[in-house]
Amino acid sequence: MSYFNGEASHWLAASPADDIAPAPLPREKQDLVIVGGGLTGLWSAYYARQAHPDWAITIIEARHIGYGASGRNGGWLSTLLPGNRTKFAEAVDRARKSDPTGPVGSAGLDGVASVSAFQAALFDSIDEVLDVCTVEGIDAHQVRGGHIDIAQSEVGLSRLRELQAGNEQFGYGPEDMHFLDAEATRAHINVDKALGSLYFPGTAAIDPALLTRGLGHVLRKQGVTICEATSARHIRKNSVATDRGPVYANTIFVCLEGYSDTVGGDLPGLQGRQVIPVFSSMIATEPLPAEAWASIGWEGRECLGDTAHTFVYAQRTADDRIALGGRGAPYAYRSGLPGDGEVPAEVVDLLAGRLSSLFPDLEFDVAHAWRGALGVTRDWCAGVFFDPTQRIGVARGYAGHGVTATHLAAKTLLDRAAGDATPLTALPWNDHFSGQWEPEPIRWLGIRSMYKIFGFADAWESATGAKKTSLLARFGSRLAGLHE
Fold first, then answer.
1. Burial class (CB in 10 A: 0-12, 13-18, 19+), 290
2. Residue 274 phi, psi dihedral angles, 5° rounding
3. Are the C-beta atoms of residues 227 and 205 closer than 8 Å to each other?
4. Rounded distance, CA 222 to CA 397, Å?
5. Nearest 5°: phi and psi at 236?
6. Long-range residue pairs from 285-289, CB within 8 A, at least 24 positions apart, any chain
7. Would you call 298 helix, strand, or coil by DSSP?
C-alpha cells in the first residue's frame, strides 16, 4: 500500500501556503509579540487587533503558521474541556480556602460551578469561531454536525452513561447532549455493532489548515507582521532572541504548546518539565465512492469517537475521505518532536485496522499518514498564565482538546495582560499548576506502559464481554492522572 507519509499533515499538503517571503523583523518595539503561529497565537493577534487597531503586533513562527498541532489535528471544534474536571474543581476549592481574594477565590464559585462556567465559555467559543469565519470570509469547510461517541460493547455503553452523568454535573444541559439507542445511532453513522451513543450537537468539523491559513491571511491584511521561518531561542522581559536577531516588545505571549521546551527563559507555567510532547497519529483515506457513503451514512459530517481506552477520533471530510486519528507510538524518549510527521508503518496499520473495525465491509486505501505533538501536563490539565512584572503570558497543555480551547485561551491571555478582572480571568485554568513530569527514563517507561495497559484493557474487555470498565484500565487512568 503506497501513501504519503509525513509532510506535516494531509490538511496542510492539500492547501499549500501562499508563497510569501518571511517578513522582516521589526526594528521598533512592538506592543505585542506572540511566539508561535498556531491557533492560540493567531487568535491572540486577531483579538488584540480588534481591541487595539493602533498596536504593533508581530507573530514569530519557527516554520510556517499551523505547522504544529494546529495544522495536524483531527479538526474537531468541540465542546471537550481541556483537562480533568475533577482536578480543576479540587484546585478551585483549595484556592478559595487559601486565597479567597485571589482571582479564582473572589469569583465566589465553588469548584463544580467554576468548571461549569469554564464549560459554558467553551460552548460560547465554538459560536464565536464560526461567527469569525463568517464575518472574515474564512472557508475552513466548517459544518456543525455535532460529535457522536459510539459504543460497540456493553462496557462501552456503561462508560457513556458515566460520561453523561459527569457532563451533567459539570455544566452540560439537556440541549447539549443526547443519549441515542442503537437504531438512532446507526441513523447518524452506520458503525458496525453500534449499541448506542452520546451525541453532542454543538461540535463543528473543520479543516484545521484552512482555519489557520485563513486567520493568517486576515491578520496580514490587518497589518499584523508574521515572521515565519524565524526560531525563537530565548525569551525575557521585553525581548525575544531569535535566529534572525532580537525583537522587542511591551508584552510577550508564548503559545508553543508541545514545542514549549524549544525556547529558554524563566517563563510562567513552563518552569521545569511541566509540559511534554505526546504524539497523536492520523490517516486519511482516498475519497470514498458514493455507494460506500450510501452504506455508511454520515451525511451530517459528525465528528466520530468511540469508547475504547485507546480511543480514536474521526471525521468525514468535505471531499469525502475519512480522516481518523489515535495515539499509536505516543512518546519519544527525552521528549523528542515529530519533525514533519512521518508515522511508523505499524501505527498506520493499527489505525487502518481501527477504521476497519468500525466499518468492516468498507474497502479503502490510505492516502496520507501523519502525526503531531500535543502539549500534555502531568495532570492532563491546560493552563493560562501571565506574569505582570515580566509582562509574559503563556498558554499550554490542551492535551488534544485545543481547537476550541485555543480561542478561549487567547481571549483570556488578553484579559490577563490588560489587568482586567473578567469572567475569563476567573476560570479554573488560570495559573493552574499541574506538577512536574518525572525525569527520564521514568517518564518514557510510564507513558509507554500507560498505553500498553489501555491496550491490554481493551483486549480483555472485548474478549470477556465485560459490562464494567476493567480494574486494569482504572489503574491505568489513575496512574496517568486521567481519572475523574
1. exposed
2. -90, -25
3. no
4. 29
5. -145, 180
6. 285/321, 285/322, 285/323, 285/355, 285/364, 285/365, 285/366, 285/367, 286/321, 286/364, 286/365, 286/366, 286/367, 287/319, 287/320, 287/321, 288/320, 288/321, 288/322, 288/362, 288/364
7. coil
User: How many CA atoms lie within 13 Å of 184's alpha carbon, on the beta-carbon side?
Assistant: 10
Q: What is the DSSP letter of 380?
A: S
What would the mean pLDDT of 100-117 be, rounded to a whole number?
A: 85
Strand partners, 200: 147
Amino acid in the structure at residue 175: E
Give the C-alpha separation, 465 to 461, whole Å: 6
R_g of the chain computed on alpha carbons: 22
Count of other CB atoms within 10 angstroms of residue 165 = 10
Helices 111-136 & 208-221, crossing angle to 10 degrees? 70
Q: What is the pTM of this model?
A: 0.97
pLDDT higher than 90, residue 280: yes
Q: Report CA-CA distances (Å) from 442 to 247, 274, 300, 305, 439.
A: 38, 15, 44, 31, 6
Q: Name the grid cell of 468.
A: 464494567
Band of pLDDT at residue 186, cut at 50, 70 and 90: very high
Q: How many CB atoms lie within 10 A of CB 231?
A: 15
Q: How many CB atoms lie within 10 A of CB 170?
A: 21
How distant is the alpha carbon of residue 106 from its chain centre?
Answer: 29
Cα four-point dihedral sign 113, 115, 121, 124: negative
Which residue type does 207 have? Answer: D
